[in-house]
Write a sequence for this structure.
C-alpha cells in the first residue's frame, strides 16, 4: 500500500471535500479521487460517503484514521533516521493552534525553527480545541497548542506552557467601560465571539446565557482581528486574551469592561505519548516551551 494514498485520504477527511484536498496537496481533483478509490479497493471497503454536506468518513474510514497517522509518522521517522543518524534535521512537522495564537504569538516560534532547523518543513494550521485534540489522537498532527480552562485529556501528554489572562473588551465610548459591570450588564449588548470550538468564546457564551434573558444577542466570527474591529466601532463586546489586544488597549481603540469574572485559561502543548517522537518534533516542543512560556501579558488595569 502506498502511503501517498493514506496522505490523500487524510486530506479529504480534513477538508471534507475532494476539491479542498486537491488544493491542499497540489493535485488535480481526479488524482485525489483516484487515490481514494485505489485505497478503497485495496482495503475492500468504502472509506468515504459523498454527501451534499461534504465527504464524511464511514465507520471503516474512522478506524483507518489513527492507523494512517501512525503509518505516516513511521514513514517520516524512517526517512529521517535510517539514512543518517546524525546531521542537520529534516522532514516535516505539523503544528495546530488557535487563530489567536497563530497571528500573535507563533511568528517567533516559526522564526526560531527556521534558524535552528532550516531543513525542517513546519506546517502550521489553525484549529479549535476539539479538532486539535482529535488531530493529535489520529496522528494527523505532531503537536497542538490549545487554549483551555482545565483541559482533561488523560490519553494525551499535556504540558502547561503559560497562563493566559482574558478580558471583556468594548469600544472606549461604551457605557460598559465606566464603573464595574456584571455579566447581566454585558448580556444587554451584542456579544462578538469567535467560532464555536474556541474555549474562551464558548465560556463567555455560557456565562452570557446564564446572566441574560434569552435570546442573548451574539455573532460569531472566524478572526480575532475582525472581532476587535467590530468591537472598536461599537458593534458589541468581546472576550479575548489580553495578549491579542495589548496594542489596541495601549492606543485607546479598545477598553476593558471591569467586573465580569472570567475562568482562568492557559496555553498547553499537547502531544501523543504513544507515538515515537522525532528530533524535529522534540526541537519544536523545546522551542515552544522556551519561547512561549514567558508572561502572556499582565491583566489590564480595570476601572474601580
Amino acid at each position: 500500500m502506498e502511503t501517498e494514498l493514506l496522505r490523500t485520504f487524510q486530506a479529504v477527511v480534513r477538508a471534507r471535500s475532494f476539491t479542498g484536498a486537491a488544493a491542499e496537496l497540489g493535485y488535480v481533483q481526479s488524482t485525489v479521487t483516484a487515490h481514494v478509490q485505489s485505497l478503497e479497493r485495496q482495503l475492500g471497503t468504502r472509506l468515504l460517503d459523498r454527501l451534499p454536506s461534504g465527504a464524511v468518513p464511514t465507520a471503516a474510514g474512522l478506524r483507518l484514521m489513527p492507523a494512517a497517522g501512525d503509518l505516516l509518522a513511521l514513514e517520516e521517522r524512517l526517512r529521517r533516521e535510517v539514512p543518517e543518524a546524525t546531521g542537520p534535521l529534516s522532514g516535516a512537522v505539523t503544528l495546530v493552534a488557535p487563530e489567536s495564537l497563530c497571528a500573535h504569538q507563533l511568528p517567533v516560534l516559526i522564526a526560531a525553527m527556521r534558524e535552528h532547523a532550516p531543513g525542517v518543513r513546519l506546517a502550521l494550521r489553525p484549529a479549535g480545541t476539539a479538532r486539535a485534540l482529535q488531530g493529535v489522537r489520529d496522528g494527523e498532527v505532531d503537536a497542538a497548542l490549545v487554549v483551555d480552562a482545565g483541559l482533561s485529556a488523560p490519553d494525551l501528554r499535556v504540558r502547561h506552557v503559560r497562563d493566559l489572562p482574558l478580558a471583556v473588551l468594548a469600544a472606549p465610548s461604551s457605557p460598559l467601560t465606566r464603573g464595574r459591570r456584571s455579566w447581566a450588564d454585558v448580556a444587554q449588548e451584542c456579544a462578538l465571539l469567535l467560532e464555536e470550538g474556541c474555549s474562551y468564546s464558548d465560556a463567555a457564551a455560557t456565562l452570557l446565557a446564564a446572566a441574560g434573558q434569552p435570546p442573548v444577542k451574539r455573532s460569531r466570527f472566524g478572526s480575532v482581528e475582525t472581532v476587535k474591529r467590530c468591537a472598536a466601532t461599537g458593534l458589541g463586546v468581546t472576550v479575548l486574551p489580553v495578549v491579542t489586544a495589548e496594542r489596541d488597549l495601549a492606543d485607546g481603540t479598545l477598553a476593558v469592561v471591569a467586573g465580569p469574572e472570567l475562568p482562568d485559561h492557559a496555553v498547553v502543548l499537547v502531544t501523543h505519548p504513544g507515538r515515537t517522537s522525532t528530533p524535529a518534533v522534540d526541537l519544536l516542543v523545546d522551542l515552544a516551551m522556551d519561547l512561549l512560556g514567558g508572561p502572556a501579558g499582565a491583566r489590564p488595569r480595570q476601572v474601580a
User: Anything to note?
Assistant: Residues 296-304 have pLDDT under 50 and may be disordered. The two ends are 66 Å apart (CA to CA). The CA atoms of residues 16 and 55 lie 5 Å apart.
